[in-house]
Write a structure and sequence with these properties.
The structure holds 3 protein chains of 3 kinds. Chain A is mainly α. Chain A has 8 helices and 4 strands, in the order αββαααββαααα. Chain A has one domain. In chain A, helix 1 packs parallel to helix 8, helix 2 packs across helix 4 and helix 5 runs antiparallel to helix 8. The radius of gyration of chain A is 22 Å and the shape is globular. Chain B folds into 2 domains: 100 residues, Roll (Ubiquitin-like (UB roll)); 153 residues, Fumarate Reductase Iron-sulfur Protein, Chain B, domain 2. The radius of gyration of chain B is 22 Å and the shape is elongated. Chain B is α/β, with parallel strands linked by helices. In chain C, the strands form 5 sheets. Chain C has a 5-stranded parallel β-sheet with strand order 7-3-2-11-18, covered by helices on one side. The chains are: A mainly alpha, B alpha/beta, C alpha/beta. Chains in contact: A-B, B-C.
Chain lengths: 267, 258, 632
């Protein structure tokens, strides 16, 4: 979005026509706290997710399949593929085949965009705090113009959420009957948050009814829009909670698989 | 009840200026604008400040209080500690005229560029019919008091003077959204919003919403829906497919693209 | 248009910015110059533009900030969307009765007849009013209106109106000169030839050559201490008209809105919309008593509920019940509140309680009265959905203003027109809520068309501006800089506000009014030696010094007329003459500039007589005729 030609504010708040004030911001509150927190947490997630996605191991313990690897379509461990292995010859980790969809969905998400533009690109770091870039073209050019494909990823995210729902259902099943473990509960919590995040999406809000000009002529879609609008107000929270839940679900599977812990079974 | 408030107020014009230190007597229940007025009446008769209603309804007294874009008439002194020094500066995105007054002509120029509303003919009885649910979104946007704090805080123009010609700013994205959602308007402004208004320059970092004194959800309710409407026109595979095979929404019928 | 060095005009203000213009005078030429950019000014400009005239709007503030934005309740127009029984005749009758029959009947008639179309026009231009179930413009109840009649948008109707007109004016490409104050009207013999003013931003002077000038400058409320009006309301149009040879009428009638905020001090006077009462709010004193039932005047007895039960039933069933006394016209309610406070039954901060919290659900209140909710929450830390508001009367509106021809708004001086609050006659002795916004639209349009037509008839024979009058206006504007060692204008303004509030307020006596005239004379003396610091660039001290002259002149007009009218009627209450006197009901008090130009003279003038076909609405006793019309 911006070329980093170094701190150059002459075209901004310290331009010749603006009120002459030396400080880049006169804010006295802790404006840096939110972007700093975002930076730390998102970075930690990216590091963890990258490591796990490339690990290609410890992602399946019957009946749990890590959400990072679902659906498992590559050269998967036995029992983890519920939809066949059309990419069986794929040389790298099976996670990489499917992870592009949830990753793309989140990267192009209107909330995540706000969060990482602020925290990682400092564009701007916080409101009324000068950004360090010399020029700025927003989302008008390659590559950021592709943020507009968010809707395509939303269509994919619906499919992914459906598959994760199926995975979650499987965690209640065992060869000899029913099963409820700690993992089942984690998976349920995760899929609920994933759905909340997916359905509260701004594109979803637009598609179900927001694009209409006459709500009165489409009462059902208006009701759906009203419902999604309510969820949408919490979209940032769902974005964070589901980020944690998906990591925890994967971590739980990994710890079971490598034998660090054993399953806490309730039923 | 009263106490002495320490203030720093920017005094100057385009040739230069600085933060001046003042001590003003203030009392309970007062707002920053009261303190500025007392300063004007007792210590600095020529202190330039723009204001009208002093009730948060006209949007004239926009400034930056401790670095945050605020209406001075709606910023209560009780939000600060009595010993805290309050710094008041003019808005930093617009050219300064004098002291706290800035030249906000940018906004009036952008208003002129916007394609105005154009309704079809009235009903046979000379009236118009619009349902409440169909006007409610537009009504939220029309709460705008044109304080231009959103325009001021938006980094697209605040930090990049060179973007001003290409970018209308959040206040006018509100207008685009309002008109695009108007149940009786006959113009399709999606292309205009993308091209002439520079909607793509917005990276939805939401500062406009944060500073809006009317609590209009500018980003969520106007800018993002407007971006999505642009996507409808250009990038959506299903909309494209629907148009190809003749299954499409007729909600936009009767509008002509600008 | 004669634009010297047009290459360097300021993009927003149109201000001449070229260095060589420093000593020179910026000049512009138009067919119609409208002074003021509130509802009436914008509507006049649009009408004049549509009639083919070259129009300029000149306003003291930025475009869209005029006092019209403060109007909350709605625009009165008998569209009949909620009550099909409503029509212009009922509206006309309500308006005349609200003004205690002192209105100019022709203005009241035109107003009632044309208001509905003016509202529908706003919708054509993009206004989004609240809707009825059928999708028509919703209409709400207000004091003094027989039927729910006010087109509205929540409680921010004025904002919707000014934004709509502003956007229309911008779409038409009308030229706007913002932050530019007109200090003198210029004349050629008897006729208007233009206007002289200064740019607030630079302090440079500007001359507008125009055969037609429309005054749309609003009211005079800033002369009072407790007021709902903004700083712009310094009576500029009233004073400009006086100095140009026009007359003011009805200046003794000043409306005190019954419900202004009383706490905290910094917002004292800030308006609390009448819609709070229209939507179910009631008034209580410190003893918890709903006191308005004790103050129903004979004149309105027949149409006002006398029991709590009937009053409460009215909100749901308006046909079979009479209106609650809280919805009596504003003058009645303001006087009642004043009496309660004087009798020692006021609240801790010197008001009474306005309670909607105990009567409507929080959701209802937040939906119907969003900006009131916001205003109390933000400024007074009061949650109006949970606790009552403390309110008291506040100076709100002046019924008096420039005397105009009802059909064209011509102010008696060729080429001079006046509309909106700065014109007089339409509202008689008391204005009904909602009638001001419709007044702006109806007469704004009429004045704009008349002004354009007049300019057109002149052809090349336009009045000319004499250089001597420009020089005179210039030296007069610069006078405050020439004085040394005088007083600061802020002090004089504050003393004037205090005097007007204490001596010419809601209840008046001869002794106090005489005292006020002495006080004004003393203030005028002090104003001759007031001094401003700094230079001409955006200098609020200087701006106030110039406005203060207008405030003093208009305050004198109010006090003189109030002293002369020895009766109580509408917005004028004399403690020493508490009764309404029928002999005073047939005459207006007219104010003109005194021979030496320093003060005002007072004359009596008979009220125009209503024709018989309109008199019939008032012939029958009020109760019977009201019932008949309602088809009860």
């Amino acid at each position: 979005m911006a070329s980093t030609t170094g701190p150059q504010l002459a075209g901004g708040v310290q331009g010749p026509t603006r009120a002459q004030i030396d400080a880049k911001t006169l804010r006295t509150d802790r404006w840096w706290l939110a972007p700093a927190t975002t930076f730390v947490v998102f970075s930690a997630f990216v590091v963890y997710a990258t490591w796990r996605a490339f690990a290609d191991s410890n992602y399946f313990v019957d009946p749990y399949l890590s959400p990072f690897y679902s659906p498992c379509l590559g050269d998967c461990v036995k029992g983890s593929s519920d939809f066949g292995t059309p990419f069986g010859g794929f040389p790298l980790s099976a996670a990489l085949i499917v992870l592009i969809f949830p990753l793309g969905f989140r990267m192009s998400c209107y909330y995540y965009r706000k969060a990482y533009y602020r925290a990682f690109w400092l564009s701007p770091p916080a409101c009324a705090v000068a950004e360090p870039h010399g020029s700025y073209s927003g989302e008008t050019r390659f590559p950021l113009v592709f943020q507009n494909v968010h809707r395509w990823f939303w269509y994919a995210a619906i499919v992914v959420a459906a598959i994760l729902t199926y995975d979650t259902a499987l965690t209640f099943r065992e060869a000899d009957g029913g099963h409820v473990g700690l993992g089942s509960l984690i998976f349920v919590a995760n899929i609920v948050l994933i759905w909340l995040y997916t359905l509260s999406c701004h594109s979803c809000r637009h598609i179900v009814g927001g694009r209409l000009r006459h709500f009165s002529k489409h009462p059902v879609r208006y009701r759906m829009w009203t419902f999604v609008s309510k969820l949408n107000a919490h979209h940032p929270s769902f974005a964070w909670y589901s980020l944690f839940s998906v990591a925890i679900a994967d971590l739980y599977v990994m710890l079971l698989a490598n034998g660090t812990i054993s399953e806490t079974r309730f039923f | 009840m009263g106490y002495d408030l320490k203030m720093r107020v920017w005094r100057g014009d385009q040739s230069g200026g600085e933060l001046g230190d003042y001590t003003v007597e203030v009392s309970e229940g007062e707002v920053v604008l009261d303190a500025i007025h007392r300063l004007q009446a007792t210590q600095a008769g020529d202190l330039a400040v723009r204001w009208n209603c002093k009730a948060g309804k006209c949007g004239s007294c926009s400034a930056e209080v401790n670095g945050k874009p605020r209406l001075m008439c709606m910023t209560r002194l009780s939000d600060f500690e009595p010993e805290e020094t309050i710094t008041v500066t003019p808005m930093r995105t617009f050219p300064v005229i004098r002291d706290l007054v800035t030249d906000v002509s940018f906004n009036y120029e952008k208003a002129k560029e916007l394609p105005s509303v154009e309704l079809g003919p009235r009903d046979a009885d000379g009236k118009r019919r619009m349902m409440q649910v169909d006007v409610e979104r537009g009504q939220e946007f029309r709460k705008c008091i044109e304080c231009f704090l959103c325009q001021n805080t938006c980094h697209v123009v605040r930090d990049h003077e060179e973007n001003k010609p290409a970018f209308s700013g959040p206040r006018f994205f509100l207008r685009y959204a309002e008109l695009d959602m108007h149940p009786l308007d006959t113009r399709d402004r999606r292309a205009a919003a993308q091209d002439a208004a520079g909607l793509g320059l917005c990276n939805i970092t939401k500062c406009c919403t944060e500073v809006c004194p009317e609590n209009i959800k500018i980003t969520d309710n106007a800018i993002i829906p407007m971006k999505e409407r642009v996507v409808d026109r250009k990038f959506d595979p299903l909309v494209w497919l629907g148009n190809k095979i003749g299954v499409r929404n007729k909600d936009d019928d009767g509008r002509t693209e600008l | 248009m004669s634009e010297a060095g047009s290459t360097q005009r300021h993009p927003m203000t149109g201000n001449e910015m070229s260095p060589e213009a420093a000593g020179g005078m910026e000049r512009h030429s138009f067919d119609v110059v409208v002074i003021g950019a509130g509802g009436s000014g914008l509507r006049a400009a649009i009408a004049a533009h549509e009639a083919g005239a070259k129009v300029a709007i000149v306003c003291k503030s930025l475009l869209g900030k005029a006092h019209t934005v403060m109007a909350e309740g709605g625009i009165a127009a008998s569209m009949g969307n909620v009550y099909p029984e409503d029509n212009w005749e009922v509206h006309f009758r309500d308006t005349m009765r609200g003004g205690k029959m002192l209105n100019n009947w022709r203005m009241a008639q035109l107003h009632a007849q044309e208001a509905p179309e003016r509202v529908l026009e706003l919708e054509d231009w993009g206004a989004l009013f609240d809707r009825t179930e059928d999708g028509l413009i919703s209409q709400r109840d207000f004091g003094g209106h027989k039927y729910a009649r006010l087109a509205h948008v929540g409680d921010r109707t004025g904002l919707e109106m000014i934004r709509t007109l502003q956007q229309r004016a911008v779409a038409l490409g009308i030229e706007v000169f913002m932050e530019c104050t007109v200090t003198e009207l210029l004349k050629d013999g008897e006729a208007v030839s233009g206007a002289f003013g200064y740019w607030r931003e630079t302090g440079r002077f500007v001359v507008f050559e125009a055969p037609s000038v429309v005054l749309a400058t609003g009211g005079i409320g800033k002369s009072f201490k407790v007021t709902s009006n903004s700083w712009e309301y310094t009576g500029d149009g009233h004073a400009l008209a006086l100095r140009a040879g026009a007359a003011l009428i009805n200046m003794e009638f000043v409306q005190f809105h019954p419900t202004g905020m009383v706490w905290p001090p910094s917002v004292k006077g800030l308006l609390v919309t009448e819609s709070v009462r229209g939507d179910g709010g009631i008034l209580k004193n410190s003893e918890g008593k709903r006191f308005m039932f004790d103050y129903i005047p004979e004149f309105f007895k027949a149409e006002t509920a006398d029991t709590v039960e009937e009053a409460d039933r009215w909100y749901d069933d308006k046909k079979n019940n009479r209106r609650p006394p809280e919805l009596l016209p504003r003058d009645e309610v303001a006087r009642a509140i004043n009496s309660e406070i004087k009798a020692g039954r006021g609240t801790p901060h010197g008001g009474v309680y306005l309670d909607i919290a105990s009567r409507r659900s929080p959701e209802f209140i937040r939906r119907r009265l969003p900006s009131m909710y916001h205003q109390f929450k933000e400024l007074a830390d009061v949650d109006i959905t949970a606790e009552p508001m403390e309110i008291g009367p506040t100076c709100h509106y002046v019924m008096g203003g420039v005397e105009v021809d009802p059909d064209t708004e011509l102010a008696g001086v060729p080429g001079l027109y006046a509309v909106g609050e700065c014109s007089g006659g339409m509202h008689g002795s008391n204005r009904l809520g909602g009638n001001s916004l419709s007044d702006l639209l109806v007469f704004g349009r009429r004045a704009g068309e008349a002004a354009a037509a007049y300019a057109d008839t002149l052809g090349a024979q336009r009045p000319r501006i004499a250089e001597s009058s420009v020089a005179e206006a210039q030296s007069s504007a610069l006078a405050p800089f020439a004085v040394e060692g005088g007083e600061n204008p802020y002090t004089i303004q504050s003393d004037l506000q205090q005097s007007m509030n204490d001596l010419v307020g809601i209840i008046r006596t001869a002794a106090e009014l005489e005292q006020s005239l002495q006080a004004i004379a003393a203030l005028k003396e002090r104003a001759t030696t007031m001094v401003v610091e700094g230079h001409r660039q955006y200098n609020p001290g200087w701006h106030l010094a110039l406005d203060l002259r207008n405030m003093l002149l208009v305050s004198e007009a109010i006090a003189k007329a109030a002293l002369a009218r020895e009766e109580s009627r509408g917005g004028h209450t004399r403690d020493d003459f508490p009764a309404t006197d029928p002999t005073w009901g047939t005459k207006n008090l007219v104010v003109t500039l005194s021979a030496d130009g320093a003060g005002v003279d007072l004359h009596e003038k008979p009220l125009p007589v209503m024709p018989d076909e309109l008199k019939k609405y008032f012939d029958a006793p009020p109760a019977a005729s009201a019932d008949k019309e309602a088809g009860k």
